[in-house]
Write a structure and sequence with these properties.
By secondary structure, the protein is of the alpha+beta class. It has a domain of about 50 residues.
Length: about 90
């Protein structure tokens, strides 16, 4: 009886762990124009960027990305290709 319970529990645990990678693929995909990296002072239009802006700020058509002398930023162009400003 005890062996059967352990077998059922271990099978459920194994199946649960196997499902984890499938759930991770459901996260939101990065889109072209998304802010990938920022350091120092950078802004999109009047919006000041910070490290917390990475992944949430997006450069739209006709918007301007500005960096200061100590600022650096990267914008996603296509998956695996980035535009780096201020380097």
């Amino acid at each position: 009886m005890r062996r059967e319970i352990l077998s059922v529990l271990s099978t459920r645990l194994l199946l649960g762990l196997m499902a984890l990678p499938a759930r991770a693929d459901q996260r939101s995909q990065a889109v072209p124009g998304a802010l990938n990296y920022v350091e120092g002072q950078a802004s999109i239009g009047a919006e000041l960027l910070s490290p917390k802006s990475v992944g949430s700020a997006t450069l739209q058509p006709s918007q301007v990305l500005t960096t200061t002398a100590d600022g650096k930023a990267e914008i996603l162009l296509t998956p695996g290709a980035f535009f780096a400003a201020g380097r």
